[in-house]
Amino acid sequence: MVKFLLILLIISFVVRFLLPIVLRLLVGKFVQKQARRYGQQFGGGVPFEGAFGTPPPPRNPAPSGGNVRVDFVPPKAQKSKPENFQGGEYVDFEEVK
Predict the structure, then answer these.
(1) Contact 69/63 with Cβ under 8 angstroms?
(2) Tens-digit pLDDT profile for residues 8-44
(3) Checking CA distances to 76, which of 13, 55, 66, 94 falls within 20 to 30 Å?
(4) CA distance 20 to 36
(5) Using an 8 Å Cβ cutoff, are 47 and 35 in contact?
(6) What is the pLDDT of residue 67?
(7) How far apart are CA 13 and CA 45, in angstroms?
(8) 31, 27, 29, 7: which is closest to 19 by C-alpha?
(9) How far apart are CA 47 and CA 34, in angstroms?
């Protein structure tokens, strides 16, 4: 009987104190792995980088002295309407119930 109670006490201490620590580490690694996959798949940064002890990557320094760096310039949209557009035809509106 004493042996059973001692084993039960040891198991309860392991479950109470060690299991949460182990689960926290495992879940943290899993979240980091999924965040890396997400970042690779969509080409963005890792959203949880640095949250679990890994240092974030170094950022590009801001340009100084009034210099501006542009990474992407979108193409200019062309007008689709002709210059001499006079308007369209009238379409009668009828409400349907």
Answers:
(1) yes
(2) 999 999 889 999 999 999 999 999 998 888 877 776 6
(3) 66
(4) 24
(5) yes
(6) 79
(7) 40
(8) 27
(9) 10
